[in-house]
Amino acid sequence: MVSRFEHPAGGYKKIFETVEELNEPLPATVTGRIPSFIKGSLLRLGPGLFEVGSEPFYHLFDGQALMHKFDFSNGQVTYFRKFVKTDAYVRAMTEKRVVITEFGTCAYPDPCKNIFSRFFTYFKGVEVTDNCLVNVYPIGEDFYAVTETNFITKVNVETLETLKKVDMCDYVNINGVTAHPHIEKDGTVYNIGNCMGKGASLAYNIIRIPPKQKDKSDPIEKSKVVVQFPSAERFKPSYVHSFGMTENYFVFVETPVKIHLLKFLSAWSIRGSNYMDCFESDEEKGTWIHIARKHPGEYIDYKFRTAAMGLFHHINCYEDSGFIVVDLCAWKGFEFVYNYLWLANLRANWEEVKRNAMIAPQPEVRRYVLPLDPYREEQGKNLVSLPYTTATATMRADGTIWLEPEVLFSGPRQAFEFPQINYKMNNGKNYTYAYALGLNHFIPDRICKLNVRTKETWVWQEPDSYPSEPLFVQNPDGVDEDDGVIMTIVVSPGAQRPTFCLILNAKDLSEIARAEVDIMSPVTFHGMYKP
């Protein structure tokens, strides 16, 4: 699963460049045959505008949200894209400058304003960005483009029009929600975010948004907090990007990457500061893993501990014989991986890109196993009795349970990231296959498949081609977990038609079809297939 290619020509720099939106869909040139069950839309989000006038955005997560769509009907394919008309985007366009502070780019006060109006703005506090460049998912019958703040943006997935900005704070006690909800078969949405807990300390809330309502009311209005996880540190919550969910439990991994809240509140108003300035790593704490029951929502106070790691994406979690198995894409150590995702790093020459990745945290696919009855053995003994894993859990004298993972895949500077599974069939259940985007020194250059039981791997890769997160689509006639296709958007900057939707057979990652368009596209992060 290691990359077979180097990128000395630096074609990857092109996926971090501004593009224009389209006025109407472009027809794609199809080679191969689009499977008959693919009739719908592939929706993806990512940054599309990397500067406003003469002011650049600095971080990978700052560019303004661009929504992409490949439409499939009767073997015909079109490509369309529009900028999401967020407040951040519209105001930047109007004032021709960065108006809202983004993840790694701070907005300076309007130079035209005098000291008095600046003084009053200061007391209004920070305007949080609504730049929804990370993902899109359904709530009830609606679709929302999202980032990780309290704002989500309702979009029309047919026309790609922007409908309305929704503030989750109006409905639940939450400071922000992740771009990685879990969605059940009936349409119930679960998500997690930082919140104010009891006694002015920070905590994490899991929220539940019900499925579409019979009376056609908005399910978001009926959002509820299901359960609260405590924070290891009172004023410094960890950065949370995703969480795990089995049939009966939630799994929350609290990493050493902390949000320094006081810094966050003070720094912003006083000087040019951004979100990235407010993270710090706790070198002592290591990683805490928490579990909670789902029905009824209640926190279970088991003190699972493991070595420091960074975590963005859970792959899957499931229960088996009194254990919870937790598979995730880990980054070793306590340093924040986002420190390596500045656009200047990603746009550097290949040798420089490789040098940066040498000192960055190393990626690893890991399986942790959490005993649901950790008190049944004496101290110091391995509690994990599942026959198929080498992961261990040991009760220590202080009452903490130390976890050591089984490594499912590890390659130096070769990440198995943006993972996907056959979600409909296997989310929260025992499973066999995971698919991912392969990062080569942080540059996306292949699609990977992993058998988590046997560790067998498959790879799709072409020179100077930069794919995105692979989405699995089940063949409706299929019975196996991997009966279906993988869909990804690939950018080949040197090609005649540089953007294409690639359809692979999920069994062996062999190519089934591609639909190419004569237009350049930037990087996308997450998305969905809408049948």
Automatic annotation (TrEMBL):
InterPro entries: Carotenoid_Oase. Its cofactor is Fe(2+). One of its GO terms (cellular component) is plasma membrane. It catalyses: lutein = (3R,3'S)-zeaxanthin; all-trans-retinyl hexadecanoate + H2O = 11-cis-retinol + hexadecanoate + H(+); an all-trans-retinyl ester + H2O = 11-cis-retinol + a fatty acid + H(+). The keyword Metal-binding applies. GO terms for biological process: retinal metabolic process; visual perception; zeaxanthin biosynthetic process. Its EC number is 3.1.1.64, 5.3.3.22. Fe cation binds at H180, H241, H313, H526. Keywords: Cell membrane, Hydrolase, Iron, Isomerase, Lipoprotein, Membrane, Metal-binding, Palmitate, Sensory transduction, Vision. It is found in: Cell membrane. It is a lipid-anchor. Belongs to the carotenoid oxygenase family. This is Retinoid isomerohydrolase. It comes from Sinocyclocheilus rhinocerous. The lineage of its organism: Eukaryota, Metazoa, Chordata, Craniata, Vertebrata.
